[in-house]
Amino acid sequence: MADDGLQIADGRWQNQSSTPLSPSALCHPPSAICHPPSEMHHHHHHQDVSRKLTLATCANLVVVLGEIIVGIYSGSLALLGDALHNLTDSVALMIALVAVRLERRPPTSGKSFGYQRAGILAAFINAGMLVAFTIFVFREAYLRLLQPHAVQTWPMLITAIVALLVNGATAMSLQHESREDVNIRGAFVHMIGDAVSSAGIIVAAILIRVTGATQWDAILSMFIGVLILLSSYGVLKESVNLLLEGTPSGIDPTDVMQSLSKIDGIHGVHHLHIWALGPSSPALSCHLMVGDVPLASTAKILEAVNEVLAHDYRIAHTTIQFELAECDENDPYCVPFAGKQP
What we know:
Blueprint: E1 5-9, E2 12-16, H1 23-26, H2 43-74, H3 77-103, H4 118-146, H5 153-178, H6 182-211, H7 215-243, H8 253-261, E3 268-278, E4 281-289, H9 298-313, E5 317-323, E6 334-336
Parallel strand pairs: 4-5
Antiparallel strand pairs: 1-2, 2-5, 3-4, 3-6
Helix pairs in contact: 2-3, 2-5, 3-4, 3-6, 4-6, 4-7, 5-6, 6-7
């Protein structure tokens, strides 16, 4: 996109604010119309998230190794299934870690928005892996129901308790970051799924010891699979929506229009587009009708617009075109604000 400033095209003029390649060089002057991405993504935040993801990956790999060994020894499908689940989660955590580090890379002339979309792509891959894994668990559990196998419950129980503690602690460490970043949320959902799986294995081990029926191992495996599908659906849906340039969850375009309508000097809006540059970096572009007003008076309007968008919707990247006209009554894409006077 072009540098911040006024542009004249087809009898209209634009005052744009966009994410610059070099914040210190392109913000003329530093004001509300220039919002560098560093305002929302601090270096220390990324370092903290990277550290947590690294520790989570290492802990998960240790759990995987333990569950594979004990699962083979005890003959528990649920434990082996959980080991595979944890292995896919380790890969998911590594993908999330790589995505976090890619997001920190600065924009280039070829990639003017940087690598912020890496996090969304990672969330999509993680959710897809969960769905594929669940299908595998259902198949193996069905075969176990047809041909039950003997299961040693004590090793299965102890290993599941250790896995539950590790997965629960890892999930809690990522909980705060998961609220704002769909990439981290994907990793968080993976770890919650692991914790639920471990809890299910504990229940299965107890039921097998009490009833002597080894089918509980397969039944609990299917139940775990259903929980994993339900938990991954939200992440998959949101990541697909963002990859398709959809409006980020939590932002209502109609509500944005109503907020803009309350700003003095704005009489209509059209071509409103809201999308996401990254997991927590929403962006907006629109045309605002301001009527026949002096050019210089629109600077305050632009400042007010950016302040509302940043404060109420956390939209820091905006491209706004002002039009010195009223809404054409035959234009279905222009929404006039009744009662607004020049």
